[in-house]
Amino acid sequence: MATTLPQRPVIAHSWRRAQLSGLRPAANGSPRIRDVDSSSRFLVAATPVIDELASRLNGYPVCLMVADRDGNVVHQWSGDDRLRGGLESHGVVFGAGLTEHLAGTNAVGTALEVGHAVAINGAEHFLHSLRSYSCFGHPIRHPLTRRIEGILDITAAGPESNPMFGPLLAGAVRDIEARIIEGAREEDRRLFIAFQNATRLRSTPVAVLGGDTVLANRACLDRLGSVDPAILSTLTAEVLGPQQVVRNLDLGERGRIRVLIERLEGTSGGALFYLGDLERASLDASTGEALRLSRSVVIAGEPGTGRTTQARRLAGNAGAVTVDAVDALTGSERAWAARFQEVTAGTSTPVIVDDVHLLPERLCEVVRRALVSRTCAPLILTSCPTAELAPPAARAVALCEEQIELTPLRERVHELPSLIESIAAERRTGVRLRFTPRALTELAAQPWSGNLSELARLVDDVLRAPIAGDVDAPSLPARYRSSARAAGLGGRERAERAALITALQASHGNKMIAARQLGISRTTLYRRMQALDVQG
């Protein structure tokens, strides 16, 4: 039987999202079940309110559910055994995922998508199996951050949602949000006590971070220098459970710091950090020492990682002559070869060959012969990542005595405060930018396909805007503000989300090409885009 598209725009758009995720109306497979953290601050705040509401509805044929920000059912109650049994037979059970890409249009998944309360009448459900029920879902937001913490849902059998469901849930949501605030105050108290205990008997550099709270002693501030202590939160993405782990905080040319991290029980994401000694970098590239050790160097990396800047720093006070491979594409290959041979013959002045990967095969051979010559000037080549080099350029690059692979910005997010400060200082505006922990968390979750060049554009955008105090998350340009679901992703999911965004940008939004680049089907691409909140 043909399925007609519903008339209400909010429902029509939801059906379209479900179709793009590869879901079919007749689907009724096994639900995806997740473990539930019964000690989470959100669930601790919601449970007493739901229990009180359930006592008022006892005997009525309704079902109450609470889902977390990922759409997983974390609390469920029903005043009617028949209703409960019917829902369970269709996969609506404790721990089940009810996002739209798993369960189609429903009051949990759709409310998460649209960000406001929504009623779903029976026939408006995308899945046939749910069309004998009607439901109403209301987002529960953190009163301070306005981030969605979860969804409160009420479901009943029948073709239409009861109009009283909305006012009933709105009052319960207000009570839950008030309890979230109380819980946040209690968490702040736990963080402060942990900081007091850690600093009472030791002079070790110590910091405590949780939510928007950042506590650091003087020794920690001295050890980090100009780096904001909030950046320590980027080290905790893969730290699970109460065990202690050690991570390295890379401060670029200043060196690195070994950091002992300990999760704090009774907090949502709070952690205690003990900082070790600063291990100085063994070589400052700006002095040009590397050129005295190597006659030839290749600096490889993604666009925007600072390949040319690093090459110039490497040349140091010796200066350098730059020969750009792009000139060989826009002009004569013969002229480019003549110019290259002229500046590299019998001199000690370093020569930078920018973007060597763009050279045609014949000119790659010219550069290769220069690299094996003992009378040639010192050569500094810049290129795309070495793993992406075509064979002609790869054969030349392989002859370099030293290879430097620049790390993309998405893997250096712990350096964001110092990088931002450095870029702002270069602008000579006199403004010292400080980003709040929440803003840094948003930036750390970005794919940064443009690397340092993209970061510089962001700094310029922020500097052009009126600045009154610290830069918080709402002050960031819209493209750097994640949704509630994206902000709650773990480290591996953030990396997957970044890969999806990068592939979509590289393919100019062509999902077939993006899926091919990622080695997945287009259906899988749509599903992961939905799951990781990637707009396409």
Q: What's the topology here?
A:
Layout: H1 9-20, H2 41-57, E1 62-68, E2 73-78, H3 81-89, H4 100-103, H5 107-114, E3 118-120, E4 133-141, E5 148-157, H6 165-200, E6 206-210, E7 213-216, H7 218-224, E8 244-250, E9 256-263, E10 271-279, H8 289-293, E11 296-300, H9 307-315, E12 321-324, H10 326-330, H11 333-344, E13 351-354, H12 361-372, E14 379-383, H13 391-397, E15 402-405, H14 416-426, H15 437-444, H16 451-464, H17 484-487, H18 491-506, H19 511-518, H20 522-531
Parallel strand pairs: 11-14, 11-15, 12-13, 13-14
Antiparallel strand pairs: 1-2, 1-5, 3-4, 4-5, 6-7, 6-10, 8-9, 9-10
Helix pairs in contact: 2-6, 11-12, 12-13, 14-16, 18-19, 19-20
Structure explained in plain terms:
Helix content is 40%, strand content 17%. The chain is of the alpha/beta class. The strands form three sheets. The chain has a five-stranded antiparallel β-sheet, with helices on both faces. A five-stranded antiparallel β-sheet has the order 7-6-10-9-8. The chain has a five-stranded parallel β-sheet with strand order 12-13-14-11-15, sandwiched between helices. The protein has helices at 9-20, 41-57, 81-89, 100-103, 107-114, 165-200, 218-224, 289-293, 307-315, 326-330, 333-344, 361-372, 391-397, 416-426, 437-444, 451-464, 484-487, 491-506, 511-518, 522-531, and strands at residues 62-68, 73-78, 118-120, 133-141, 148-157, 206-210, 213-216, 244-250, 256-263, 271-279, 296-300, 321-324, 351-354, 379-383, 402-405. Residues 282-293 have low confidence and may be disordered. Strand 9 and strand 10 form a beta hairpin.
